[in-house]
Amino acid sequence: MKTVTVFRGDGIGPEICDAVLEILKSAKAKVTFECFEVGAMEYERNGKLIPDEAYASFERNKVLLKAPITTPIGKGFRSLNVTLRNKYDLYANIRPAKSNPAIVTPFPNVDLVTFRENTEDLYVGVEKVIDEDTVHATKIITRKASERIIRDAFAYALSNHRHKVTCVHKANILKQSDGMFLAIFYDIAKEYPSIMADDKIVDNVCMQLVMHPQAFDVLVMPNLYGDIVSDLTSGLIGGLGLLPSCNIGKTYAMFEAVHGSAPDIVGKHIANPTALLLSACMMLDYLKEEETASRIRTAVDEVLKEAVSLTPDLHGTATTQQFRDAIIEHLL
């Protein structure tokens, strides 16, 4: 039985995390959990956003399920997500966006996946104040990082019966950095002749996504564009509360909801755990428990279709616990 490290997060994190763990137990997932308190509250108590024993657990277990974490505002606090991605070389951020028939949106047939390079680009956060009127930010694109995220996107497309991979870039302006990313994309595309390969400029992609999202299949892009575009794709399917996400490297894997810790609804017990639950399903797939993951996804679909136990963000009146219990009922 596999042991998974769990960061319960803060804000609504513990509420949705506990709901997800109960669902996983009810589904008889072959995993055990080592749970840790992390985030702003942990910093106030013990002076560390993530305690040493939490890091040690992740390094031992190699798999992390992470609820939303609040990074304190102020100088000296770097995003915990960025810290974890860099510390454990979680270079591939994968976010599938798929329409659910029970959720009414302008686009009923969205089924696409974004592959976001997770370790470089402007996200390295290197800025230099030149003078009081000028700041320079450094954009880093390397062959190593570009090759591995692009190769992963094509490998995913091949193994999941996808037909097309689109490279998203701004090489018309950033001719060296994004130009290299684009050139590497087409070099690797030659190794996958059965997969269609094309490219689009990032601003055009954003326009096309809100007009014809069904035209896209797998998208791969540098870090900053991936941050923006993947959030946009969540809007196509009903919002961040429905979008799962994973961050994968060669040794470690982290599965998380991409929405925030929502301090405005903490303690109201109305948070929607779907995004974290579907991220946990991606974790089960990663751990070769595809059948259990499939059962949970089916239960989620049934609860959404019934529209009886939906949380307020889905125009319902159910609590987090009622939503959880409805899913568990479909699993039993």
Question: Could you give the topology of this structure?
Answer:
Blueprint: E1 2-7, H1 13-26, E2 31-36, H2 40-46, H3 52-61, E3 63-66, H4 80-87, E4 92-98, E5 111-117, E6 127-131, E7 134-137, H5 143-159, E8 164-169, H6 177-189, E9 196-201, H7 202-209, E10 218-221, H8 223-237, E11 244-248, E12 253-257, H9 274-286, H10 290-306, H11 320-331
Parallel strand pairs: 1-2, 1-3, 3-12, 5-10, 8-9, 8-10
Antiparallel strand pairs: 4-5, 4-11, 6-7, 11-12
Helix pairs in contact: 1-9, 1-11, 5-6, 7-8, 9-10, 10-11
Family: Belongs to the isocitrate and isopropylmalate dehydrogenases family.
InterPro entries: IsoCit/isopropylmalate_DH_CS, IsoPropMal-DH-like_dom
GO molecular function: isocitrate dehydrogenase (NAD+) activity; magnesium ion binding; NAD binding
Walk me through what this model shows.
- It is a single chain.
- A ten-stranded mixed beta sheet has the order 2-1-3-12-11-4-5-10-8-9, sandwiched between helices.
- The model has no long low-confidence stretch (mean pLDDT 94).
- Helix 1 crosses helix 9.
- It has two domains: 189 residues, Isopropylmalate Dehydrogenase (3-Layer(aba) Sandwich); 130 residues, Isopropylmalate Dehydrogenase (3-Layer(aba) Sandwich).
- It is globular, with a radius of gyration of 20 Å.
- The protein has 332 residues and is an alpha/beta fold.
